[in-house]
């Protein structure tokens, strides 16, 4: 019997919330995956424990002071170079790169891995919100290369690549029709511009490799749900994507109550256990706004076909509505190990460490529209996404600073959305930046947001009220 070789993994951001859960999944799938590289920021104790469990060939720790306390098992090398993440992402012995690091700088290893032809599974929001215009052409190029090499005869239409048109009987009347999507990526003279000539592509089934989602795989629970709903479907039949949101801990609170929210209140999420930044983003609905932008970049459906619905039970993680009126949804416990594992094992499914979902024990599942007056971040994000890469990059950079200021006590809870809106208004116009320009732009936005005092009322791009204008 011929043994199937294990997929070789580099896990970037292994000690964060997503990284630790990814390690849990990988430990349960040792027969399928070999962890070659681990990278972390400053948690030397957790990284050392992971290295002992997983026996990688190399690790990296960004914090020089923490490196001095890092005790590694024999046979594990330490990469202390400034470009360690890129070096790990482009190793010849790495097939799949899991990106669980934060910040726009994570785009460097993502782009490097895709150019080499490695698979990328990403939980990093900047990948698509700030750098979708850089990342998606590479993922689509890899899919086109696979289609050109393997041919397209007998293959089902790609599930989520290219523009998604309106169906013949448009369930959303009044919206402009979108051009028809090609059922497969059309080979051209160079179907994968910017990629290495041989791609370094790990073996993937031809019917899988011809989808961009085989190469750039979302770990986010909502985008994983959408991806699962789209597998095997014709993109031309998609009418609408439904992103579900828990509503956070402040659903139903008045504007006056929201002004009195403390960091401890915002970090008490009713259903999910996540890191501090994403937990606060869930409370403001900024996380859902960023996911709207990600869905537009990843699935190319158009912002007008992406809807958000509040679903407090967090059992339905998202849904796709089709031209015939059918709606497919993905259900599961609010456990990030499920989307992490799907991104690792796609197109296969394996037993998961997550608990099973008993439909007969669920009780009621409820839905309601979001209130964008009390939670303006959702509308701010939608407008930034429509404005382009520069505006959405300003939004996500500003939001990170705003959340940090809120947690530090220098900004009130409603001020998170106000500061983000002001940054988009100030920095959002202009051409889409390249990678180096994007990193410099991100730093400029962050510096301004960190120093911005709030003194006088002003409008926001989404019409939120209050003290929104920082003094210049």
CATH superfamily of the domain at 7-217: NAD(P)-binding Rossmann-like Domain
List the uncertain runs: 153-191, 197-201, 455-472
Percent strand equals 5-15%
Helical percentage = 25-40%
How far is it from the N-terminal to the C-terminal residue, by CA? 70 Å
What value does the Rg take, in angstroms? 22 Å
Q: Helical element count?
A: 18
Overall 3D shape: globular
Round the mean pLDDT to the nearest integer and report it: 86
Strand runs, count = 13
List the strand order in the largest sheet.
Answer: 4-3-2-1-5-6-7
* CATH architect. name of the domain at 7-217: 3-Layer(aba) Sandwich
Sheet with the most strands? 7 strands, parallel
CATH class bucket of the domain at 7-217: Alpha Beta
Task: Write down the CATH topology of the domain at 7-217.
Answer: Rossmann fold
Going by helix content, strand content and strand pairing, the class is alpha/beta
How are the SSEs ordered, and which strands pair?
Elements: E1 7-12, H1 17-27, E2 33-40, H2 44-54, E3 58-61, H3 64-67, E4 77-78, H4 84-89, E5 96-99, H5 107-116, E6 119-122, H6 126-129, H7 132-150, H8 206-209, E7 216-218, H9 221-230, E8 238-245, H10 255-258, H11 263-266, H12 276-284, H13 286-299, E9 306-310, E10 316-322, E11 327-331, H14 337-345, H15 377-387, H16 389-408, H17 413-427, H18 435-451, E12 454-456, E13 469-470
Parallel strand pairs: 1-2, 1-5, 2-3, 3-4, 5-6, 6-7, 8-9
Antiparallel strand pairs: 8-10, 10-11, 12-13
């Amino acid at each position: 019997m011929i043994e199937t070789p294990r997929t070789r993994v580099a896990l970037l951001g292994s000690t964060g919330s997503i990284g630790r859960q990814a390690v849990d999944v990988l430990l349960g799938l040792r027969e399928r995956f070999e962890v070659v590289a681990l990278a972390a920021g400053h948690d030397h104790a957790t990284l050392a424990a992971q290295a002992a469990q997983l026996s990688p060939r190399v690790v990296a720790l960004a914090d020089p002071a923490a490196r001095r306390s890092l005790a590694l098992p024999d046979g594990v090398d330490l990469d202390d170079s400034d470009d360690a993440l890129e070096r790990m992402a482009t190793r010849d012995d790495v097939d799949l790169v899991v990106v669980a690091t934060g910040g726009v700088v994570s785009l460097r290893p993502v782009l490097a891995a895709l150019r080499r032809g490695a698979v990328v599974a990403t939980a990093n929001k900047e990948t698509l919100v700030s750098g979708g215009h850089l990342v998606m052409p590479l993922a689509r190029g890899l899919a086109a290369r696979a289609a050109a090499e393997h041919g397209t005869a007998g293959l089902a239409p790609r599930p989520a690549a290219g523009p998604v048109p309106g169906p013949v009987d448009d369930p959303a009347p009044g919206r402009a029709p979108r051009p028809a999507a090609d059922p497969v990526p059309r080979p051209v003279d160079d179907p994968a511009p910017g990629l290495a000539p041989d791609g370094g592509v790990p073996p993937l089934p031809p019917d899988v490799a011809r989808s961009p989602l085989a190469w750039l795989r979302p770990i986010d629970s909502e985008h994983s749900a959408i991806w699962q709903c789209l597998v095997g479907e014709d993109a031309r039949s998609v009418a609408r994507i439904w992103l579900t949101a828990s509503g956070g801990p402040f659903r139903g609170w008045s504007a006056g109550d929201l002004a009195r929210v403390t960091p401890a209140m915002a970090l008490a999420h009713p259903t999910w256990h996540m890191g501090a930044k994403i937990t606060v983003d869930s409370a403001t609905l900024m996380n859902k706004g960023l996911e709207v932008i990600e869905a537009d970049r990843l699935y190319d459906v158009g912002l007008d076909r992406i809807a958000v619905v509040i679903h407090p039970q967090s059992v339905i993680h998202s849904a796709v509505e089709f031209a015939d009126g059918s709606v497919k949804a993905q259900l599961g416990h609010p456990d990030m190990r499920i989307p992490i594992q799907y991104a690792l094992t796609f197109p296969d499914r394996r037993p998961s460490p997550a608990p099973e979902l008993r439909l007969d024990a669920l009780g009621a599942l409820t839905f309601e529209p979001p209130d964008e007056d009390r939670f303006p971040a959702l509308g701010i994000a939608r407008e930034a996404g429509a404005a382009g890469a520069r505006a959405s990059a300003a939004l996500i950079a500003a939001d990170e600073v705003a959340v940090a200021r809120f947690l530090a006590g220098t900004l009130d809870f409603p001020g998170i959305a106000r500061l983000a809106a002001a940054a988009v208004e100030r920095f959002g116009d202009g051409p889409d930046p390249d990678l180096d320009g994007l990193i410099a732009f991100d730093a400029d936005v962050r510096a301004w947001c960190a120093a911005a005092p709030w003194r006088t009322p002003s409008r926001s791009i989404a019409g939120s009220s209050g003290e929104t204008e920082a003094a210049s």
